[in-house]
Amino acid sequence: MVLAEDVLTPGGRFLMPKGTTLDGGHLKSLLAWNLPDVGVVEARQRAGAAAPDALGPLVDEAAEQAVRERFCRFDPESAVGRVLFPLALDREIRRRRAAGAGWEGAEAGRESAAPEEPRRAAGEALEPPASPEALLRDEPKLVSPPEVYQRISEVLRDPASTVEDAAASIRHDPSLAAKLLRLVNSSYYSRTMRAVGGRFPAKVDSLSRAVLVVGGRQLATLALGVSGLPLFPDIPPHWVNMRVFWEHSVGCAVAAQVIAVARGQDDAETAFVAGLLHDIGRIVVYKQASHHMAAAMRQAVADRQPLHVAERETLGFDHAALGGGLLRKWQFPANLEKMVRYHHDLDEPLFLEGPAVVHLADCLATAMGWGGSGNRHVPPLDPAAWEALGLSAEALAGLVPRMEERLAETMHSFFPDRAGPP
Ligand SMILES: [Fe+2]
Ligand SMILES: [Fe+2]
Q1: How high is the mean pLDDT of the chain?
Q2: For a tag site, which of 12, 69, 223, 391 has the least CB within 10 Å?
Q3: Rg (the chain; Cα; Å)
Q4: How many CA atoms lie within 13 A of 365 on its CB side?
Q5: DSSP helix/strand/coil, 323
């Protein structure tokens, strides 16, 4: 492994130059400085080769440090923490070991630990933040939803709409129809359907069959989420790689749907789409209020704060409120909008249950390291949300491996070329 950049200590002292070929001594030194995530450009060994035995304990130690840091705001001794921490650690060790000699390189492109502030003139003070309405107005891609969105929203808002109305609203967009069929045909979806006793043919090859199998309103709800992804502007890569962002979103979607099914809810598709879109407000903030977001991210890292708390202090609102505002502007179904708007704000008891599903799913996705949307630390699990869901920690332990198993396939159904967003 060769260092891709100069390495500085957390205090800014020069430690190792770019181009250093790392040996065991270098790795020990990096770990001693709590710097397990430096970038490397080259692996001496074949990519994917297992980590050499001599490095195994160091890799495991670095994995444990990383997971402990991730859980710094989440009590690993709580009932849920006792279940989640070992699962997260096991996954992190597997991930780092699978990356072999390039285990540190596997971190490249993931979340920035302490982002550089975007360029500003010397002495330039941070301007007062814009309002959520102004941020949404200034993002040209989001000013108005595309026509297909409006048609699907109308079908969902109209209680008298039929399954044929739902199919017709989707049929106008062949690429959306193809993406939906891919999602419905993923074994993740078919297994979920079987688990709840639904009939599922071997292959759903047309929209009409998809409507019959999944249900018209459910398919239209999925269509809202699937058609939304390409609308969002790319985040500059020094923030968060878009693929990592969507992996977090798809992870949260899968988790929310599995939780909803486990609770016997009949709106699992709504939970899926709410999970998929729960952090979209953050994309707008990265793009339209980058200086404030840089300040919030630095504050969150320095104070080991959940990022949404730092956002509230820096911007006066958080990404969840902004995302909820966007969904309201686009006339999304009210329950879906509330699941997004309140996923970090569980104080409103009238809306507790829906947002609680997304809240727990977000905690799970962050704890397990399924992608990332900028938050380094697992948000604390709200006790009222956990109680409202009525799940046991043991039941959760059984759900997490099933979610993980299906995440890769669901990601593939969204991003078949593995290159990035659709
Ligand atoms: Fe969030
Ligand atoms: Fe999130």
Answers
A1: 80
A2: 12
A3: 22
A4: 34
A5: helix
Q: What is the whole-number distance in angstroms between the Cα of residue 307 and the centre of ligand 2?
A: 10
The H-assigned helical ranges of 129-206 are: 132-138, 147-157, 163-171, 174-185, 187-195
Q: What distance in angstroms lies between residue 11's CA and the mean position of ligand 2's atoms?
A: 29
Give the whole-angstrom CA distance, residue 179 versus residue 224: 12
Rounded alpha-carbon distances, angstroms, from residue 24 to 20, 27, 56, 247, 254: 12, 5, 11, 32, 39
Per-position b or e across 371-390, b if 16+ CB within 10 A of its CB: bbbbbbbbbebbeebbebbe
What type of residue sits at position 112? Answer: S
CA of 364 to the centre of ligand 1 (A): 12
- Each residue of 211-235: pLDDT tens digit? 877 788 888 888 888 887 777 777 7
Distance 300 CA to ligand 2 centre (A): 15
- Our CA dihedral for 85, 88, 94, 95, rounded to 10 degrees, sits at -140
What is the whole-number distance in angstroms between the Cα of residue 246 and the centre of ligand 1? 13
φ, ψ at 45 (rounded to 5°): -100, 165
Proximal ligand: closest to the CA of 378: 2
Q: Could you give the CA distance from residue 411 to residue 25 in angstroms, rounded to a whole number?
A: 38
Q: For residue 358, how many C-alpha atoms fall within 13 Å in the half-sphere facing its CB? A: 31
Q: Where are the domains of the chain?
A: 2-107, 132-414
Q: What is the whole-number distance in angstroms between the Cα of residue 121 and the centre of ligand 2?
A: 32
Q: What is the pLDDT of residue 142?
A: 77
Ligand (nearest to CA of 255)? 2
From ligand 2's centre to the CA of 358, what distance in Å? 9
Domain 132-414: top CATH class: mainly alpha
**Residues 347-356 pLDDT 10s:** 876 668 899 9
pLDDT above 60 for 121: no
Task: Report how far residue 300's alpha carbon sits from residue 330's, in angstroms, rounded to the nearest whole number.
Answer: 31
CA of 320 to the centre of ligand 1 (A): 6
* 226 C-alpha to ligand 1 centroid (Å): 19
User: Which two tokens mark 48?
Assistant: 């994917």
